[in-house]
Amino acid sequence: MQRPLAITDDQDLLDDLLRIAAAAGVELDVTHVASRARPQWRTAPLIVVGTDLADDLAATAPPPRQNVLLVTRTPDDPTSWRKCVAVGAQTVLELPAEERLLVAEFADATEPSTRSGTVICVTGGRGGAGATVLSASLALSASRTGLRTLLVDADPLGGGIDVVLGEEDAIGARWPDIVGREGRVSYAALQRALPTFGELTVLSWHRGEPMRIPREAMRAVLDAARRGCDLVVVDLPRHVDEAIAEALARATATLVLIHADVRGVLAAAQTLATLRPHTGDLRAVIRPGTLDPDIVATSLGITGGLVCPQQRGLTQALDRGLAPPLGRTPLGKFCTTLLDTLGATRDPDGR
């Protein structure tokens, strides 16, 4: 992949550019002589020109192109806009005031092709409903069909969804390493930081003291994932705080796993009342019990009503550190059907 090009001989400005690029998860090519920028002028996804070399660059008469920025460390410099026009830049960014804008520009320039990923949130109608296993199974099933998938563990008290996948020892960042992020984040950088297995990337919790996910961190992760993924699956706790509300607001659909018994329905009614102000498309996934699944869905005023089958040996497999058994198993077939119902499958063009 081509890297953005910085054209400057100002060491202080270059230090700022390298730091800002690192915050976006991007590496820069650098030239200290304007005339040497010609070979990369057409191919670099973004060109950042320091005001110190702008006149030298203009003297080389570079051909017009998009994605050229002029950067300066001198606020309100009256010569900046003249230099901006001379090099054919789209705008002038003053540092440090406009660092966040430059982070976003770097991230945009190197972002994988936009995929507008589907976001599916999953939660339990009551504790122990099996929402975490369903979340992991959906994400794993999707990734095995070639969908680029991010699985997000949003429940700090769940013990870590990486355990459900049998990957608790996988090397990579967990939520405590991510909670400070805000603003634009490159999905490529996020994926490099997190444990990734084929097309599945996982953001899980550590086994230390629980932490709160800031709204800004959840927003940054999900926005990056929607740009870089086909599918995002978020395993939610049963309470709604600012971060969970952020996830629900971005959900294409929110699945509520409901036990088909009296206690399960009563608990699910309270859970649904908590969720409804924050998300639009709520759907029921029913665990078999003493009540008819259609009656359960109707009584709760929720669409869906797909019945999640019992999977023989599931608990034993998880206790042995194995991922949920999918493929041609009842759980695997159910996940395939559910993903198809939600529109989270590959289209005929392989996308």
Strand content: 15-25%
- Inertia-based shape: elongated
Can you tell me the CATH topology of the largest domain? Rossmann fold
Give, in spatial order, the strands making up the sheet with the most strands: 8-9-7-10-6-11-12-13
Total separate domains: 2
What sequence of helices (H) and strands (E) makes up the elements? EHEHEHEHEHEHEHHHEEHEHEHEHEHH
Overall number of strands: 13
Helical residue percent?
25-40%
Largest sheet descriptor: 8 strands, mixed
Number of helices: 15
Textual characterization of the structure:
- This protein has 351 residues and is α/β, with parallel strands linked by helices.
- It folds into two domains: 5-110, Response regulator (Rossmann fold); 118-341, Rossmann fold (3-Layer(aba) Sandwich), CATH 3.40.50.
- The chain has 15 helices and 13 strands.
- α6 (131-144) packs across α15 (330-341) and α10 runs parallel beside α11.
- The longest helix has 14 residues, at 131-144.
- The mean pLDDT is 90.
What is this structure's SSE topology?
Elements: E1 5-7, H1 11-23, E2 29-31, H2 38-41, E3 47-50, H3 54-59, E4 68-72, H4 80-87, E5 91-94, H5 99-110, E6 118-124, H6 131-144, E7 149-153, H7 161-164, H8 175-178, H9 187-193, E8 196-197, E9 200-203, H10 215-228, E10 231-235, H11 242-249, E11 253-259, H12 262-275, E12 282-287, H13 293-300, E13 303-307, H14 314-319, H15 330-341
Parallel strand pairs: 1-2, 1-3, 3-4, 4-5, 6-10, 6-11, 7-9, 7-10, 11-12, 12-13
Antiparallel strand pairs: 8-9
